[in-house]
Design goal:
4 helices, 5 strands, rod-shaped, 3 domains, alpha+beta, Beta-Lactamase
Length: 190
């Protein structure tokens, strides 16, 4: 038979468990809200993938870039479902290397080739995705579109090549003029 002290003790234990679960639930809810807000509003493309490089979760901007209406549509898909095979293979190789070594990849400029053949450029950071025990369970990454920057860099490089060619042509012209001037001087001396 339970005594008053036993009932009181059981009530305290149950109440304590309810409070602990409530606090844990509140913390989980807050963390979930923060992640949801981040993925909804960040302009960069963010993803989380499993060990086979299939999407677990992506940001809204990544979904829009992939032509999806909602980020949830990407779950279970891979880069091969959205990109040219050359780009998908390179991304898979990077991610498998990260999973194998546990090393983060920072500041890689990637040319992204789309199925229709057009390309864009992205500054990419990728890292291992770990569980609470520190085991690698996938990869995560963020990419920033740098297409406009790369187009300007390529244009500047092209202008540099054109300038170098112009300088060579100008130097040839100057040499020609000097030779011509020497010939005239020689002609008039005779």
């Amino acid at each position: 038979m339970l005594t008053v002290a036993g009932i009181f003790l059981m009530t305290c234990v149950v109440l304590g468990l309810v409070i602990v679960v409530s606090l844990a639930d509140r913390r989980f809810w807050t963390e979930r809200q923060l992640l949801d807000a981040f993925l909804e509003h960040i302009p960069d493309r963010v993803y989380f993938k499993d060990l086979e490089s299939r999407f677990l979760r992506i940001s809204r901007s990544k979904a829009l870039t992939l032509g999806l209406e909602r980020p949830e549509e990407a779950i279970g898909m891979s880069d091969a479902d959205h990109f040219h095979s050359q780009h998908a293979a390179a991304a898979l190789a990077d991610e498998q290397e990260i999973i194998r070594t546990g090393k983060t990849m920072v500041g890689k400029e990637e040319e992204v080739i789309w199925p229709d053949g057009h390309s864009t450029w992205a500054l990419v950071n990728k890292a291992p995705l770990r569980d609470r025990r520190g085991q690698i369970v996938g990869t995560m990454g963020i990419s920033h579109d740098i297409t406009a920057k790369k187009l300007i860099e390529m244009e500047v490089a092209q202008k540099g090549i054109e300038l170098a060619r112009s300088n060579v042509a100008l130097e040839h012209w100057r040499k020609w003029r000097r030779r011509r001037a020497r010939r005239r001087e020689t002609f008039w001396r005779i």
